[in-house]
Amino acid sequence: MSSATAIAPNYELIQQDGLETSLLEVSMGPHHPSTHGVFRMDVKLDGETVVDLQPVFGYLHRNHEKLAENMSYLGSMPFTDRLDYFNSMTNNWAYALAAEKLVEIEVPERADYLRVIMAELTRLVNHVSLVGFFINDLGALGTPLLYAFREREKILDLFEQASGARMMCNYFRFGGLRNDVPEGWLDRARDVVDHFPVFLDEYEQLLCENEIILSRTQGVGCLSRDLAISAGITGPMLRASGVNYDIRKVDKYSIYDRFQFRVPYTDGNVGDCYDRFMVRMLEMRESIRILKQALDGIGDGPVLGNAPKVFKPKPAEVYGRVEAPKGELGFYLIADGTPKPYRYRVRPPSLINLTVLRDMCLGQKVADAVIILGSIDIVLGEVDR
Amino acid sequence: MTTENLNAGMDLDDNTRSELERAGVIVSQVASLYNWARGGSVWPLTFGLACCAIEMIASATSRFDISRFGSEVFRPTPRQADLMIVSGTVTKKMAPQVVRIYNQMPEPKWVIAMGACAISGGPFKQGYNVLKGIDRYIPVDVYLPGCPPRPEAVLQSLNYLQEKIRTQDIKSDPAFTKGRRQYPVPEFTGKDLEPPYNPEVWQPPANPNDKPLEKATA
Amino acid sequence: MSHTVNHESILGKFPGTNWDQEAGALIVPAVQAKEIATWLRDNDAFLLDYCSNVTGVDYLECEVKEKVTKEDGTVENVTRTEPSRMDVVYHLYSMQKQTGPLVFKQRTNREQPEVESLTPVWRSCELQEREVFDLFGVNFKSHPDQRRILMWDEFEGHPMRKDYTEPFDYEWEPTPHDEILEKHQRGKVIV
After folding, report:
1. How many interface pairs between A and C have CB atoms less than 8 angstroms apart?
2. A150 to B61: CB separation less than 8 angstroms, yes or no
3. Does residue C53 fall inside a structural domain?
4. Which of A101, B23, C17, C53 suits a disulfide with C91, CB 3.0-4.6 Å?
């Protein structure tokens, strides 16, 4: 166990033919065509092999936690949209879950169904965009990304019809949702969900057996099972390293125990970039299964439960977490009896998944470092908050 | 959108003009041709900082298609780009890098401040790490409000920029009057950036009252 | 609906620990923290191998009003001062047994906050403890790489503390409200 948790030592230099060389230090970022946001990696290279790597972030630190201490509980809901700006619905849900634990509010059933539908649509949006960006990093300049964004636009249209905004939806409230979906929305959602597997088949046919992707991602960025558990990795990255841990199955929050779906995970022997890519492709299919069941099972009713007019919970501490598309997104709230939280903490999956970036990149080529970063799936709004 | 009067300052009657055009000769000013060419092929720099970057990328995808307005490619290097779309919150840690990249761009160069955060700090204004607007250090040509602005709004801001370019007098172009504009890069100190703003580019608004207000007059 | 962990056996084995009922957390003295953490990770009854969240909380000195029942049955309103402290809170889960969470707090003072780093036990504490150092100023002993992570290196001060004052940078606005109105009324304008 101790060898898995120790920080990896520097990769050893080999001197060949009595030639003395020096290390090349390159600062990749914060403005770089392939870093996913303003993220900087200081790499030390011996030729093309990475010898040391230090990530530097904080270029988007917008002190979200300090702002929330001066605002009411509901006032921080629009700010949670801007944490992980691809999946605003899931961020809202994690915060609403934590706040609903503080004050025991009953969520009506239709609201629960709609929440699951929105969260799974968000998962589709995230995974499809990530696969697009990942293939973009590999060198397929733009084409898979544009195909992926075409599908994303259809789902963003659905979000806009329901909540009024494409990306920063601000749709969830404590005890339900802000408003019901308009007429005909469920049928349109069903059309999108029925058409999505066609697109996935087309994508898989083009990409999953592609020689270039296989040779560039297999064996690159391997993450062992023990290191993944110890480093607190969650989400598709953990499941690609062989651990069957999905918070939807463990915590069974909301109504996830009513749906039948599988959790794709590998046997943990390799845990490379290709595994992470494939786990995400399979997760998209499982999301479609959940969506079909939810769209069939949804009933009528109100969408907002009885939340108190002034949200002033008694002194307590709570930690609420959901399975966001990137990992475990948790909110730790300490209430002290006033309308403002005493401590508001976001547990960011992207930051904690970055713990193992250095271990995975040592000994690889510099071009692989870019791909490994792409496969971890980070969003700087969440890393820096 | 206004179209430039192609024969401004020349007195040619219509008959002569149409005869010349039939023979394949067009009479115009150098300025209008120059501005038409520059405005029609503005190539942006990939400079996405935060959430607005996703809407900028979405405006380049096939549904909204920014390349039909001339921005065919997004160049990753500032040495080959014309336009810097600052999309997203500029923090104090990032501000020196933004100014450095602006300095590296050759003339002619323009800046669009996209989103509320780049214009004035946005929803995160009261922050110890947030810069209240990128126009404190570099000159901005078009301000695009929104949080995030829709891709159609990005396209409209590009149209406004193109109109601004087309109606610009060539003699007052900063590329010819000032040379390549480069601004000093701010440094980090213990509390804040030094200097907190660039006085050439931006001045804080002056308080017109002699004494402070008793309460807000909203 | 996660399965919470039973803490009774920990209190029995390590007598220096307390259980805070209101917060639902185990308070651990800094000297024993690494030993307890290693035991929690390796012991078969717990197997808490996944540290999910590490955060710091700052408490200033404050007055607390309580109702105390004396021996003769009368109820009295008592005001006592709660001393200042700084907590480092860990949320622990078990992936193998799929149980959790167990909340684990290391308590220290505010003047010279120093706790034991649990990075050798759970690797996920590495970046989060750096963040607690950056934003709160807590010194983690035996942390492999303790330096600022979110703010720039020359920055002075620890922003998330409750008594942190931002540098005064008020600028005039035509319709101020909330915090900006307060600064407006103080009357200072920077030029």
Report:
1. 93
2. yes
3. yes
4. C53
Report CB contact under 8 Å: B89, A67. Answer: no
Q: What is the ipTM of this complex?
A: 0.86
Residue C136 to chain B, least CA–CA distance (Å)? 14
CATH code assigned at C50? 3.30.460.80
Is residue A256 domain-shared with residue A365, that is, in the same domain? yes
pLDDT at C102: 86
Domain boundary among A16, A35, A56: A56
Q: What is the CATH number of the domain that holds A244?
A: 1.10.645.10
pLDDT at A21 over 90: no
Burial profile A200-237: b = 16 or more Cβ within 10 angstroms, e = fewer:
beebeeebeeeeebeebbeebbbbbbbbbbbbbbbbbb
Mutate to test the interface with C, among B94, B191, B193 (most CBs of C within 10 A): B191
| Domains of chain C: total | 1
**Which pLDDT band holds residue B3 (cuts at 50, 70, 90)?**
very low
Residues A6 and A139 in one domain: no
Nearest CA-CA partner of A321 in A384, A245, A243:
A245
DSSP A168-189: ----EETTEESSPPPTTHHHHH
Q: Which stretch of DSSP H or E encloses residue B154?
A: helix B151-166
What tens digit of pLDDT does each residue of A228-261 get? Answer: 998 989 999 999 998 898 999 988 888 898 999 9
Cβ of A380 under 8 Å from any chain B Cβ?
Answer: yes
Q: Which residue has the tokens 């000769």?
A: B25
Q: How far apart are CA A345 and CA A330, in angstroms?
A: 8
A chain contacts of residue C103, beta-carbon cutoff 8 Å: 317, 319
CA distance B188 to chain C (A): 7
SS (H, E, C) A304-316: ECCCCCCCCCCCE
8 Å CB contact between B144 and B152: no
